[in-house]
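Quick one:
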Amino acid sequence: MTPPLGAVLCGGASRRMGIDKATLRIDGVAMAARVAAVLLAAGCKRVVAVGGDSAALRKLGLDDVADEFPGEGPLGGVLTALSQGAPAVVLACDLANIQPATVKALIEALGSHDAAIAFTDRAEPLCAVWSPSSADLLRTQFLAGERAMHQAIDGLDVAWVTVAAGDLLNINTPADLRTL
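Output:
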């Protein structure tokens, strides 16, 4: 497989955090930049930030792509990443503990599947590799009004990749920062 595109979803409102999670610094590094570094270390050919504060993301040294569906949730961000014309590893910007080995395992699992999605005790579609073959079904689901990632993946051929729960720790609130 050609090296995939890496995409960091940065378009959320960060209501529970109270400030933009993508630019929130952990150990001196903005969360979006931390996730982007993991994507590069895992072998992504290029990494883009999808959605969010374009100027702030560029200031962090990230290439940014405008979300084609701003305010419509992460499914729109996945579709935006897939519109770049390559398989895409899509990670939420708040996966502060994600490891390159986890991303590599997802990339290796994709094969001829539509997607390879991280799984612990539940699916985490915001830690996944999406084949261009998934775009049509995802877009159809989106245009029909679906916004829930867990529902939108119905009908896709998915490789489920069991990962360590700690890799999928989401930092959503100030209290979550104490779990690092």
